Amino acid sequence: MINKFKEKYNLDFLDGIKANPEVEIYVFGGAIRDIILGRPWKEIDLRLVYNRDRDEREAEIERLLDKYSLEGKTRIDNQNLTVYRFLPAGSSTEVPIDLSLVPTINDNLPDFTINSIFYDLKAESLVDSYGGQDDLADKIIRTVKDPVGQFKDEPHMVFRALKFSCQLGFNIEPETLAAIKENSGVVQSTFNFIKNTREGILVELFLGNIFKGLKDDPLRYFDYLNQTGLFGEFIKFYSVASGLVVASEQEIEARDLGSYENNISYLFSEVINAFNIADREKHFNRLADLLAVSTPKKYSDLVIDIQLLKYSAG
């Protein structure tokens, strides 16, 4: 499998990391999943495990990778996690590597079992501790942790479940889907994080999780919004952010408008149409701005032409 990774990335940087015997190095997530499924894969996610206190852990990895222009350093304190992005010189892709740094393999567990298969770059072998290969075979989306706890701890994972279901054509298993329905309100914290933060790795990651289902399978995505109450959460977000009273909270018709931009436009338009207001185009643009969809992006999590986002009366 390591030769697959070398098709896109110059992995010479691994030599320096391997020189420290205490650092464990894994590839995990989408690349492993897609290679097993025989699908095209986009980028690799690296997980480095180094059991030292945070400052020492970060200093050592930054020293080992000081030639590789680490960027976007983000600390997620409640998960004992530090995240970087970098692109090794000589790689044949322009998509950077996401590198996460944790003290033990059990810190910041993967989100879903299908993404929980690790490839140990030192031993050159797969590590499947959560039945990921079985769930890939059965075509189901299941959280690694208890789903209620997972979604309360990381609310953006609600939309991430939808994204993978739409992307892969898999079903969300019943317990995970029930947890989304019962806890749909947790996504308000993700919406508000985007509104207040505006830019950066996490904002763009969250936006990709929220909207990518509209690119891959909009009919399935809109059906999930209705099943789970998430369409109502979009409406609630704009109601609170704008101080407006909802006139009619209804389901959104499952439609495919033919392009990513058209489908996002349709979703935002239907949110605005839930309010009895004038100048709906202005409110449409404000919603796109509040959710940072219309702001310039640095990474490839949400790639759209913002000039094509337009309000529609329905």
A few lines on this structure:
The chain is of the alpha+beta class. The chain has helices at residues 2-6, 13-18, 30-37, 54-64, 132-138, 147-153, 157-168, 174-182, 187-197, 201-211, 213-216, 218-228, 230-242, 260-272, 280-290; strands spanning 24-28, 45-49, 71-76, 81-86, 97-102, 117-120, 125-128, 140-141, 171-172.
What topology does this entry show?
Layout: H1 2-6, H2 13-18, E1 24-28, H3 30-37, E2 45-49, H4 54-64, E3 71-76, E4 81-86, E5 97-102, E6 117-120, E7 125-128, H5 132-138, E8 140-141, H6 147-153, H7 157-168, E9 171-172, H8 174-182, H9 187-197, H10 201-211, H11 213-216, H12 218-228, H13 230-242, H14 260-272, H15 280-290
Parallel strand pairs: 2-5, 8-9
Antiparallel strand pairs: 1-2, 1-6, 3-4, 4-5, 6-7
Tell me what the structure shows.
The chain is built from 15 helices and 9 strands. It has helices spanning 2-6, 13-18, 30-37, 54-64, 132-138, 147-153, 157-168, 174-182, 187-197, 201-211, 213-216, 218-228, 230-242, 260-272, 280-290, and strands spanning 24-28, 45-49, 71-76, 81-86, 97-102, 117-120, 125-128, 140-141, 171-172. It is of the alpha+beta class and 314 residues long. The radius of gyration is 20 Å and the shape is globular.
Could you list some keywords that capture this structure?
single chain, 44% helix, globular, two-stranded parallel sheet, 314 residues, alpha+beta, 2 domains, Beta Polymerase, domain 2
- By DSSP, the count of extended strands is 9
Helical amount: 40-55%
Order of the strands making up the biggest sheet:
3-4-5-2-1-6-7
Uncertain regions spanning at least 5 consecutive residues: none
Rg over CA atoms, rounded to whole Å, is 20 Å
Using the alpha-carbon principal axes, give the shape: globular
Structural class category = alpha+beta
Total of domains: 2
Q: How big a fraction of the residues is strand?
A: 5-15%
Largest sheet: 7 strands, mixed
SSE pattern, N- to C-terminal: HHEHEHEEEEEHEHHEHHHHHHHH
Mean pLDDT: 94
Please count the helical segments: 15
Span between N and C termini?
48 Å
